[in-house]
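User: Modeling request: complex.
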Amino acid sequence: MRNYGLYDFRVATSGTARDINRRIVLNLIRKHQPVSRADLSRFSGMQRSTVSAITEQLISERWVAEGAVSDLPRGRKPTFLHLNSQRVGIFGINVRPFATNLALANMDGRFLVQEILPTPPVAGEFVEQVSQRIHDLIKLNPELAYEGIGVSLPGRVDLSSQRFIFAPNLGWELEDLKQQMETATGLPVELENEANACALSEFWFGRHGDGVRNLIAVAVSEGIGVGMVLNGQLVRGPSGLAGEFGHVSIVEGGPKCACGNRGCWEVYASNSAAVRSYNENTSTPIRSRTKASRQAAALDDFDELMKLAQEGNSRAGAAIDQMARHLGVGLAMLVTGLAPELIVVVGEVTHLWDRVGRIINDVIQRRSFTHTTTRVIADGPAPLPRLRGIIALVLQKRFGTPTMA
Ligand SMILES: [Zn+2]
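Assistant: Request completed. Predicted assembly structure:
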């Protein structure tokens, strides 16, 4: 007989308890701000004195600030507390095959700076260019305390070594990016898969995810990435590879995929799949005007395809509809297999959500008997969800409660 979990534990010390209580108070302030100490005590079930001690410490560290005084008619007037969101600066970087978004954000996910840089073909050049820009931005904003850098990647990162282990659409050598960036910037760096970043974004800042503990983000672009928050925890699997549904083969012997497999879901339902399908069925294929890179061309082509579909080109419309049906097939698998409360679709294709969402929901309805418990929604185009998510990842180090590992 096996005793699960018996050998993998950490004993709680009084320090652990203090740390957990501190995180709970920080999270409650984040959720309910502006909020009084009395309410924090009521929400958390902690003694007033414990709450006061924790909030004093948070105020002295400038995580929390005191704001307005309540206008209650009688009695002692409590002072409201709120997060000192201006204190903290976090860099969010969203790497995509053709372009990199760089953002500087506050604690509440508000962007102070947002820029686009071309993604260099080699990781070393990327580190050099991005850290130079980060040094410049730190000099321009000396009043901020910098918590760290989050990097969202179109690939998977090994949890223990923090090395890239899988990035078929990016084409970089699989290097120790975290170490290189930390050395170049002097700040802690967190790497995360882009779909996981989207899932965190919805879990942390999302409008639809309030109270939701099981949600899946499906990032549709050159490929398809899936990020899962199940039972309030980001699911990475022992190696960090969990969620590669985009590379599950749905047609045996189908077209070859960048991963080496054949007939993967993303070969049928990604942006590039829709462009390929259109080009195969027309005498006037879309030929990129962008010569910068294969990936930049792919994005440009998909924009062109969506434009044609919107203008009423029937072949372009058919290619988009086919992509939507294939998206539905994979989503039905997720709905039936994992039955989350929410699935968030992220990517350019959400521009046509009126058309695409209808088809997707239709396929799910026909294929999954558990569809009624899952909402499928579109969350605007990238890069915003990825940037917000990667900022949430850095914040989570500070705010994370035991259920948000
Ligand atoms: Zn594949």
